[in-house]
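Notes from the 1:1 (GR / supervisor)

We went over the backlog. Supervisor wanted to see one worked example end to end before approving the batch request, so GR pasted a single chain during the call. The sequence is below; no edits were made to it. Supervisor asked that the structure be written out right there so they could see what the output format looks like.
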Amino acid sequence: MTTEIMNRPTRRGVLCVVAAIVAYPARAGEVSYVNPRFGTTITFPGEVFSLPQPPSENGDGMSWASPDGAWLGVWGQYNALDHDEKALLDFLAPEFDEVTYGKAGKGFVVLSGLDDGKVFYQRTNFGRDGVLHSMLMRYPQHRHANFDRLAIAVAASLKGP
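Structure output shown during the call:
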């Protein structure tokens, strides 16, 4: 991910507490996360991504890890460069080692492939007021049979105003 797209200034404090409060179980085994700053929401299996990581310093997102080396990040951000779907796809693709799938659809962008020895799957949805809602999942290549479908299912739950 790039700094220009992420726009992550450095602030800590109350946002750490808020981010911890808004990640809550939806159903047994499921966690629903709501980002208080951008309204980005996602649901994922808490038994898989059971290790919450420190929230971002400015409150734009949060991430979780799994004991077997997978990682899930969720964030909202302003579309500061005013990209449309195709321009965002073209902008994000070079950030990864190898993009094997990329699609720019109406209101969303999806990229998948290999990066730093792991499989990645990223989805970004275009929201209201120039906000982008994104998720990125990374997982070991040898676990792709388990995680490929999970990445698509988690990405389908990504929402935002």
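Supervisor's comment: Residues 119 and 139 are 5 Å apart (CA to CA).
Batch request approved.
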